[in-house]
Design brief:
Number of helices: 14
Number of strands: 4
Structural class: mainly alpha
Helix content: 55-70%
Shape: flat
Distance between the termini: 51 Å
């Protein structure tokens, strides 16, 4: 007979089993992405204890075993940081702007802080020391050094990287920043008021929601992908073509121009015309900000925002 757990019981059991913090969000993630099955109904969540143990043991135990088989026992498993949640590896300013190839702050802390273990046998840095990072990227080393009371200097060939790094370690008048962002947001709302793009987007989302519920129900769809009941390469193109007709009908109904006339730059290629128009409108407002520090952080916020609105894949990003 199956031993079924409520989500609260599953959280408690998983935390004891893994000897790390586990939240209800971690468990629902496994259900929503088809890693484990929900045996409940009518909105209730019930989880098979044996299935949960099987998932965790295969994910954590097998991964460590596989790497040791490849590299031998002389491997510092501390550096896997598998006990860290995403909220910890992207803590505070580290999540301010995505950066491809960024290492997590815990990795930097491991080498900079004052702890030792069976692999790290010496302490290399102390408070008041100076660290030079000649390839500082988005500033992870600078930030962690700052937290540990260590001075740090960063160098990078990319001007944008230096902007992100300096924004992360600077101090701001948060009240003033909030006022500036609110003003820009209100002006963007006024900009939208004489256009039909919002109505188009709302109707598109409504149609998408109905379509997704029918053809991509969660979590059943993701589970069927994992079990190969659905063949991804066949299923996706078929459903994409099915929805395209709905999409084109809405474009025609609301008279929305989607493509930009020019494709000479990445801004022309990555963004649909309504989005590009909004980017240009907000960018002009950002350029008029008098306070240099506020202008810098708002420009990074704008960059983060438009990055999320791109019409291209994650793999295309630099």
């Amino acid at each position: 007979m199956q031993e079924l757990l409520t989500i609260y019981e599953a959280v408690q059991f998983a935390a004891n089993h893994l000897e790390k913090e586990v939240t209800s969000s971690n468990i629902t993630y496994l259900i929503n992405y088809g890693r484990i099955k929900n045996f409940g109904n009518n909105g209730n969540i019930l989880i098979n204890k044996k299935e949960l143990v099987g998932y965790y043991d295969s994910y954590y135990g097998q991964r460590k075993t596989n790497w040791k088989d490849k590299l031998g026992d002389d491997i510092d498993w501390h550096l896997s940081f598998e006990q860290c949640k995403e909220s910890e590896t992207t803590k505070h300013v580290h999540r301010l702007h995505p950066y491809k190839g960024k290492f997590i702050p815990q990795l930097v802390e491991y080498f900079l802080d004052a702890h030792t273990d069976e692999f790290k046998k010496e302490i290399y840095f102390s408070k008041g020391d100076i660290i030079l990072d000649p390839f500082c990227g988005s500033g992870t080393t600078l930030i962690q050094a700052n937290e540990l009371g260590i001075n740090a200097i960063g160098i990078d060939i990319s001007e944008f990287n230096t902007l992100i790094s300096n924004v992360k370690i600077s101090k701001y008048n948060l009240t003033k920043l909030n006022d500036v962002v609110k003003t820009i947001t209100e002006k963007l709302k006024v900009y939208h008021s004489d256009k039909n793009i919002i109505e188009f987007e709302e109707k598109l989302l409504e149609k998408l929601n109905v379509f997704n519920n029918e053809f991509f129900p969660s979590p059943e769809f993701k589970r069927k992908l994992r079990t190969k009941e659905i063949i991804e390469k066949e299923y996706y193109p078929e459903k994409e073509n099915k929805f395209l007709k709905v999409y084109h009908d809405l474009i025609k109904k609301y008279d929305v121009k989607i493509k930009q006339g020019n494709t000479s730059s990445f801004l022309d290629k990555w963004y649909l015309k309504p989005v590009r128009d909004e980017i240009d409108f907000v960018f002009e407002l950002v350029k008029k900000i008098d306070d240099k520090d506020i202008k810098k952080i708002v420009s990074v916020i704008l960059s983060r925002t438009i990055r999320s609105c791109r019409a291209t894949t994650h793999s295309d990003l630099a």
